Amino acid sequence: MLSALLLLLSALTASIGVSLLLALVARDFRTANNLNGVFVLPTTTVTGICVRLVPGLWRFLVLAVLLLAMGAVASWIALRWLTFERYLS
Question: pTM of the predicted model, to two decimals?
Fold first, then answer.
């Protein structure tokens, strides 16, 4: 139960990080829709590989760590990208 909760929290962290990065990269709705596939593909690929290769309940923990790392990297890139000029435009 705790590993499923950890997986949920790390998936939310990854979602927030990727959404922040997408919002900073895309300037309008059409660009955001086009770039959304670029951000979704690595997540689904990592999830599929983890589910196929990691045995038992360890897959929850491994996937939680991978999603948490992906969310942290996306948030770090987004916060490094965010400048005052970009925020105003």
Answer: 0.80
Report phi then psi at 57, rounded to 5: -80, -5
- How many CB atoms sit inside 10 A of residue 66's CB? 18
- The helix/strand/coil state of 51 is helix
Number of H helices, E strands in the chain: 4, 0
> Which residue's structure tokens are 């990208």?
81
Q: What is the pLDDT along the chain (89 residues), one digit of tens a residue?
A: 888 899 899 999 999 988 888 888 887 888 888 888 888 888 899 889 988 999 988 998 999 999 999 999 988 988 887 766 666 66
Contact between residue 69 and residue 16 where contact means Cβ atoms under 8 Å apart: no
